[in-house]
Design brief:
single chain; alpha+beta; 4 strands
């Protein structure tokens, strides 16, 4: 009888030990699974963060590219409004005339016969009378000749506004130093109103005035 009881107890101990071993193995597998899941989540978060960072950097870079393109576009529009700048690429020096083959007309005569009510730099002068007064100021300061240039004379403009429009003036400078100084001062004032710096007297033959 005792032998049977001892055998039963031994079997029960073996079953219990086996259960413990299985439990420990199961626990180990669960722990490894949890660790693997955490590592997977960490890798996923790292990949997500790297992807987000790359997207942010790409967006930032695209913004810079767009800004550069906008600046290039703005500079292009700016330069298109300065026809005399094409002469800079032809070896322009202070002594070189910027008149070249530009279309221009003597300002007094052009304004007098122009039926446009605001024919010259309307943002600056508004009316023809104020534009005429400015031209007279240039002549009184000693200008040899005042020309209007960068003239726009589309058919629709002539029809709608009554005459051509110009937004630039070229002043032929005298040799007299005092007169030149007065004209350069007028140019400085006008340039600063447009957000630019005035020009220095380097022996130029002409001064270029442009209004946006």
């Amino acid at each position: 009888m005792m032998d049977k009881e001892e055998e039963i107890l031994r079997l029960l101990h073996e079953i219990r030990d086996t259960q413990r071993e299985h439990h420990e193995e199961w626990k180990k597998v669960v722990d490894e699974s949890v660790i693997a899941q955490k590592e997977h989540e960490q890798e996923w978060r790292k990949a997500r963060d790297e992807s987000l960072l790359a997207q942010k950097q790409a967006i930032k870079k695209n913004k810079y590219y767009m800004l550069i393109l906008l600046l290039i576009f703005a500079c292009g529009l700016f330069l298109l409004n300065f026809p005399f700048l094409e002469y800079l690429g032809r070896g322009f020096t202070p002594e070189t005339s910027i008149l070249g083959d530009l279309e221009r007309h003597e300002a007094r005569q052009w304004l007098r016969t122009n039926k446009n009510v605001s024919p010259l730099a309307s943002n600056r002068f508004g009316t023809k009378e104020k534009a005429v007064a400015f031209v007279e100021q240039l002549y009184e300061a000693g200008a040899e000749t005042v020309y209007v240039t960068n003239i726009q004379k589309e058919d629709w403009r002539i029809k709608d506004e009554g005459g051509p429009y110009a937004d630039a003036v070229i002043v032929v400078l005298p040799e007299d130093k005092e007169k030149r100084q007065k004209l350069f001062e007028i140019c400085r004032v006008e340039a600063e109103k447009e957000g630019f710096e005035g020009m220095k007297d380097m022996g130029q033959k002409e001064l270029f005035f442009w209004w946006d």
